[in-house]
Amino acid sequence: MTGAARIVVTLVIFAAMVALMVVRPRRWNEAWWTMLAAAAMLALGIVTPRDALGAILAGKNALLFLLSLLALSLLISKSGFFEWAAIRCAQVAKGDAHSLYRNAFVAGAIITAILSLDTTAVMLTPVMLALVKRLKVPAAPYVVLCAFVANVGSLALPISNLTNLLFADAFHQTFAAFAARMIAPQLVALVTTYAVLRWHFRRELPKRFDGESLPDPASVVPNHAYFLFCVTVLAVVLICYFLAPLMGLEPYVFAFAGSAVLAFAGMAGGRVRIRAARELAWDLFPFVIGLFIAVQGLENLGIVGVESGWLASMRPGSPEKLLSAAGATALASNFMNNLPAALIARSVLLRSHSHMGTVLAALIGADAGPMITPFGSLATMLVFAFARRDGEEVHAGRLVVLGLWATPVIVVLTVLALALSFALVR
Questions:
Q1: What digits encode the pLDDT tens for the residues 192-220?
Q2: 94, 212 Cβ separation under 8 angstroms
Q3: CA torsion sign, 268 to 272 to 278 to 279?
Q4: Are the beta carbons of 415 and 362 closer than 8 angstroms?
Q5: Please, are residues 268 and 260 in contact by the beta-carbon 8 Å criterion?
Q6: If DSSP states are collapsed to H, E and C, what string results for 269-319?
Q7: How far apart are CA 407 and CA 369, in angstroms?
Q8: Using one digit for the tens of pLDDT, what is the confidence trace for 25-52?
Q9: What is the spatial distance between Cα 70 and Cα 219, in angstroms, rounded to a whole number?
Q10: Alpha carbon 87 to its chain's center
Q11: Owning domain of residue 245
């Protein structure tokens, strides 16, 4: 295959993969399309088996952490935690619909931070939709809230987003070091996002809601002892994430340990069955592995070298470099999904030996930036899929109109907060 043909074929395969992920003909899972794209690139020699194995091994720790988080989230859901949290949000609001919206946003941000954006998309979204239906308040503002908070709220910790795991592992950032750098940008991102959403939905959010139909939060907790045990184990696991470097262990070891403890406790109390393992989102793994290989095919075209030269030409750590890195990954995320965009950005940043500020700015673009198109991130796609399933269709054009002005505001202010943190503490 000639050089020109190789470029054309690679780009066609990658573009077809992204298009099929979005359209999902016959409702086939996204993993089919990433794996088929990977298989095509391997069959045509665009990616060698050695390249593919190297790409997978480079993301091994992130994949293990993802598995441990999915297991932990599933086991916690068995305690009734997410239903309890949703009802408490409404109960604390005391009939004030604006307070309900704020409480839902805060709950989503906390769950995203400690259990990942996929947990918010898969487990909190259906619960929140059921709650707003019961309270007879408009669902659209809450669907968009879940999509935004799942993405924008995933900056704080390495565990909050798979992209964070990939970056933290590649750039050797400990759990504590990552959290220390990202806490200020995360707070700015959340405050900005909440202000944007409240203003955008100011006419749709009612002033009051009738909370008389709300059940007692305790009624959705099947076993109070298991519920308290889950909360305790989750708190211990979070503390251990920060202590992991002192013990010479990978943080996912503690997530697996917490999952094992909860699984045994759940089985002993009759809350968990072995067949619950089938409820894990196993399809995420072939989806991600296929993406690893497909992105490797793009990297083999020399894209990484060109982008690395562009980054190297800018002043290290300068605000314009940080904004450029964030803007580039945000733009790429909205066109090709944020995971492949983050994988390419990771390679570019590694090749150019980028300043950590530039690395984290690119990550902000990948996490908070894919909110213009409904396929910018898998979490957004999942949120909208659950909404459609429940009969709450939110037109894609509405997200695009909101995202076109809101996303740049959120990303720019968040990156400026990051730049300020590096200016104050180097």
A1: 999 999 999 999 999 998 877 788 888 88
A2: no
A3: negative
A4: no
A5: no
A6: CCCCCHHHHHHCCCCHHHHHHHHHHHHHHHHCCCHHHHHHHHHHCCCCCCH
A7: 6
A8: 877 888 899 999 999 999 999 999 999 9
A9: 25
A10: 24
A11: 3-424
